[in-house]
């Protein structure tokens, strides 16, 4: 060991080698982390100590790869992807990092040697719930795939101190508790306060003469510090580790001693609390923006820090700015990070003094936008009053972008004022606002939807003018899910069966599942497959008994609907099916013997301010408590609604499911990703032709999918004709009896008022046409019962679902983004 390590010395440059991947090596590293990391010995270590020591040990094995990757990425200067997302629904990290580093077995053995049950430590991990639902989980799947494919990528986001709320039920009603996921700290994060960025807000702008060149500058009023926290994103057993960089807000001067000494203690720390608020909590809405100023502060905070980070860390100081499109592409995960566009322009024009047009040309090649919704109310708009007050220079830049854009629109479409007004980034009604989806579309090199149908509707219905103005800009990239977490990790028994048949390659090449088609014809394989499903049901039963005191009955079909609670997803259709089946039995109309025993499992959080959604949750629990305690349907029907549905529960429920409910009104669900996870785990889908259901049905075949309901064009034409939900009520006795049962208070102790708002909404409004699709749905459910009676045929169909859904790997989605949008290549 030289007495002085020169910075270029190999030991200074290259990271210290990882510990030996042996049981002994692991035990040594673990005990070291227990002693030196937690300051305890094995004998007096708590479960939390052991979990943290384990996590630190896994980190130690991944660290060498991570540091090596960071060094090589800086060295080779390949084009990288900066994924900007306000949400990352990561799920628990321990098992995924053990799997990625190939240490699962060694860790299990090493801990057993220390008398520790790995499963006990697993339970210690608090899931980082830094997302609401589909969009956040998709971001997590995508960064996993990019690391596994060796694509240089940094995921940028916000390190919320409080993630998505914890849901409990009080008398069947949703109650929210704060998600203090950091109360014990997180062993997977690395704080880098030295890398803090100063993020400015408020103030005003001024123009000045810069040696004859008129320039503008921003004079902000206040600022905060953005402190980066790095999280490892390990590739699957490929020695690669990418980075997730989440920003946390702290006050620039956290404590004002002068004010403190004057005795105004509140005032002394006001700046700190105010600043910290920015990354305090995730907004729990996943469809209707509240337009709160703090939300815009959050959005600007993380994108400004991320752009600064790219310039300071990723690019050499003297980097030629016009080459930026060869070095970086920013993918905008919905409209939430779009304020990045004027921020990028501000940095290029105001700070780096680039010419406006040259800067705009670069900007239009460095950004791309993914839209994740079809609901008009979910498209964010920011009043110019608020945006101008918080980010005065950015509003000026947006106005300039819009001016130039409308000039081009006028050139192409002539003086069509109507169209000009409709395409303007600035909307006038109800208040003068910036339409963020329009800004993203004008600035983005590409705009993509997340399923074929969704992308078609974006082109034809949501942004038709822009599609006409920008030929070729609108493309599709169908969503995907990572097979590492949602098959290999969450369904080890199915993975074992597949690997026995096909070898291990499928985990990173999911289309290989296609080779399972032949096995669907093999009775022995079908038996093993059915046993895997039965075993997963038993596992789920143990989890739900332990977690919520629920009993999952053997021999029941598990009919599962897990997703955010939203009227367009139509949990109410599922409720009507349960009530119809229940009413049929208690009325004697249906012989109880003919009913296929079913357990209906729900999982769903409602945005706290979404009243109707919370009412529907109450109704589901009310129906459940009546059905589950009615001896007339004992052993036949059961409704289970475990609270606090999250990634960890999904990993238990999905492998156990027989039937996957994907029943949104056609044209409303952008894609769905749960639908893909269920199909890949051998559940059959009952669904409408909506989102990615269409592509799942096309791949698995109509015989292996229970399609029902109106198509999107049929929905449009019924709507255009004037939809009268009550006419369906009058025409369908089964529907009438079910709705009447709810209205009569059968599930509310005779209190007719409790669920009256739900019933009257369906009868007189029913925006998502639950009543119109009811009879088709009930018909399809009868087909499901008939099909399930032939277990062997059902299993064959389930195997074909698995075999034909390799396309829905997020690795394939990433390949599409690379080929169609990013044009990056897996480097070194
Ligand atoms: C500002 C409020 C807000 C917050 C989140 C509006 C909209 C969102 C997300 C876009 C909602 C979301 O999660 N969308 C879901 O994205 C998934 C991933 O692409 C799709 O599979 C789902 O169909 C879509 O609902």
Automatic annotation (TrEMBL):
Give the protein's cofactors: pyridoxal 5'-phosphate
Keywords per UniProt:
Carbohydrate metabolism, Glycosyltransferase, Pyridoxal phosphate, Transferase
Gene3D superfamilies per record: Glycogen Phosphorylase B (3.40.50.2000)
Report the superkingdom from the record.
Bacteria
Q: What is the protein name given in its UniProt record? A: Alpha-1,4 glucan phosphorylase
Report whether Acyltransferase shows up as a keyword of the record. Answer: no
EC number in record: 2.4.1.1
Q: What organism is this sequence from?
A: Microbacterium marmarense
Per the record, a Pfam family?
Phosphorylase
SUPFAM superfamilies, per database record: UDP-Glycosyltransferase/glycogen phosphorylase
What the protein does?
A: Phosphorylase is an important allosteric enzyme in carbohydrate metabolism. Enzymes from different sources differ in their regulatory mechanisms and in their natural substrates. However, all known phosphorylases share catalytic and structural properties.
Query: Which reactions fall under this protein's catalytic activity?
Result: [(1->4)-alpha-D-glucosyl](n) + phosphate = [(1->4)-alpha-D-glucosyl](n-1) + alpha-D-glucose 1-phosphate
Q: Which family does it belong to?
A: Belongs to the glycogen phosphorylase family.
Asked if the keyword Transferase belongs to this entry, the reply reads: yes
Enumerate the GO terms in the molecular function aspect.
1,4-alpha-oligoglucan phosphorylase activity
Q: Which InterPro entries match?
A: Glycg_phsphrylas (IPR011833), Glyco_trans_35 (IPR000811), Pyridoxal_P_attach_site (IPR035090)
């Amino acid at each position: 060991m030289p007495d002085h390590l020169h910075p270029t010395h190999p030991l200074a440059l290259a990271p210290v080698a990882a510990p030996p991947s042996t049981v002994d090596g692991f035990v040594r590293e673990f005990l070291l982390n227990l002693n030196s990391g937690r300051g305890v010995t094995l004998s007096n270590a708590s479960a939390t100590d052991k979990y943290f020591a384990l996590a630190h040990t896994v980190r130690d094995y991944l660290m060498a790869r991570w540091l090596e990757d960071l060094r090589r990425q800086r060295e080779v200067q390949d084009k990288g992807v900066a994924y900007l997302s306000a949400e990352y629904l990561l799920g628990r990290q321990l098992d995924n990092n053990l799997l990625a580093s190939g240490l699962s077995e060694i860790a299990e053995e090493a801990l057993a040697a220390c008398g520790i049950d790995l499963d006990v430590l697993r339970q210690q991990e608090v899931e980082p719930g830094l997302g609401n639902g589909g969009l956040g989980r998709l971001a997590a799947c995508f960064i996993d795939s990019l690391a596994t494919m060796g694509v240089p990528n940094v995921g940028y986001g916000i390190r919320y101190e409080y993630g998505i709320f914890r849901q409990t039920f009080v008398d069947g009603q949703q109650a929210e508790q704060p998600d203090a996921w950091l109360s014990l700290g997180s062993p997977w994060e690395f704080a880098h306060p030295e890398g803090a960025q100063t993020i400015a807000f408020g103030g005003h702008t001024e123009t000045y003469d810069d040696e004859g060149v008129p320039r503008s500058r921003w004079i902000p009023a206040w600022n905060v510090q953005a402190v980066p926290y790095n999280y490892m994103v390990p590739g699957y057993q490929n020695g690669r580790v990418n980075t997730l960089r989440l920003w946390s807000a702290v006050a620039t001067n956290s404590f004002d001693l002068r004010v403190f000494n004057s005795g105004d203690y509140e005032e002394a720390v006001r700046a700190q609390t105010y600043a910290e608020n920015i990354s305090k909590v995730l907004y729990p809405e996943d469809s209707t923006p509240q337009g709160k100023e703090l939300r815009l502060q959050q959005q600007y905070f993380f994108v400004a820090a991320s752009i600064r980070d790219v310039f300071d860390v990723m690019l050499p100081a003297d980097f030629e700015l016009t080459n930026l499109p060869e070095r970086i592409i920013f993918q905008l995960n919905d409209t939430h990070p779009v304020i990045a566009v004027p921020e990028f322009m501000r940095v290029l024009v105001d700070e780096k003094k680039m010419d406006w047009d040259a800067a705009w040309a670069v900007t239009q090649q460095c950004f791309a936008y993914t839209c994740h919704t079809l609901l008009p109310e979910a498209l964010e708009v920011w009043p110019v009053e608020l945006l101008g007050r918080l980010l005065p220079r950015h509003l000026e830049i947006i106005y300039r972008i819009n001016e130039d854009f409308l000039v081009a629109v006028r050139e192409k479409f002539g003086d069509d004022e109507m169209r000009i007004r409709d395409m303007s980034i600035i909307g006038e009604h109800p208040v003068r606002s910036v339409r963020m989806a329009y800004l993203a579309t004008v600035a983005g090199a590409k705009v993509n939807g997340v399923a074929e149908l969704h992308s078609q509707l974006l082109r034809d219905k949501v942004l038709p003018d822009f599609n006409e103005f920008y030929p070729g800009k609108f493309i599709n990239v169908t969503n995907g899910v990572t097979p590492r977490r949602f098959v290999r990790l969450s369904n080890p028994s199915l993975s074992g069966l597949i690997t026995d048949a096909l070898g291990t390659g499928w985990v990173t090449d999911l289309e290989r599942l296609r080779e399972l088609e032949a096995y669907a014809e093999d009775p022995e394989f079908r038996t093993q497959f059915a046993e895997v499903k039965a075993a997963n049901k038993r596992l789920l039963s143990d989890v739900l008994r332990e977690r919520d005191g629920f009993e999952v009955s053997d021999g029941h079909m598990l009919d599962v609907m897990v997703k955010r609670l939203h009227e367009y997803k139509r949990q109410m259709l599922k409720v009507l099916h349960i009530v119809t089946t229940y009413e049929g039995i208690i009325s004697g109309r249906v012989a109880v013997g003919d009913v296929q025993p079913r357990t209906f499992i729900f999982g769903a959080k409602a945005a706290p301010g979404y009243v109707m959604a919370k009412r529907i949750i109450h109704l589901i629990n009310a129906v459940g408590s009546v059905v589950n305690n009615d001896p007339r349907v004992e052993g036949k029907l059961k409704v289970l609604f475990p609270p606090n549905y999250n990634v960890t529960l999904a990993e238990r429920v999905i492998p156990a499911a027989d039937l996957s409910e994907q029943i949104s009104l056609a044209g409303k669900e952008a894609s769905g990703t749960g639908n893909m996870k269920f199909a890949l785990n051998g559940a059959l889908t009952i669904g409408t032709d909506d989102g990615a259901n269409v592509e799942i049905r096309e791949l698995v075949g109509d015989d292996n999918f229970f399609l029902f309901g109106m198509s999107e064009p049929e929905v449009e034409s019924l709507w255009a004709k004037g939809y009268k939900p009550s006419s369906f009520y009058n025409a369908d006795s089964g529907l009438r009896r079910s709705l009447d049962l709810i209205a009569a208070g059968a599930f509310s102790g005779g209190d007719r008022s409790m669920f009256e708002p739900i019933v009257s909404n369906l009868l007189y409004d029913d925006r998502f046409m639950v009543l119109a699709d009811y009879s088709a749905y009930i018909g399809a459910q009868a087909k499901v019962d008939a099909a399930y009676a032939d277990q062997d045929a059902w299993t064959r169909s389930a195997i074909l679902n698995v075999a034909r859904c390799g396309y829905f790997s997020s690795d394939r989605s990433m390949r599409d983004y690379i080929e169609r949008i990013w044009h990056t290549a897996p480097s070194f």
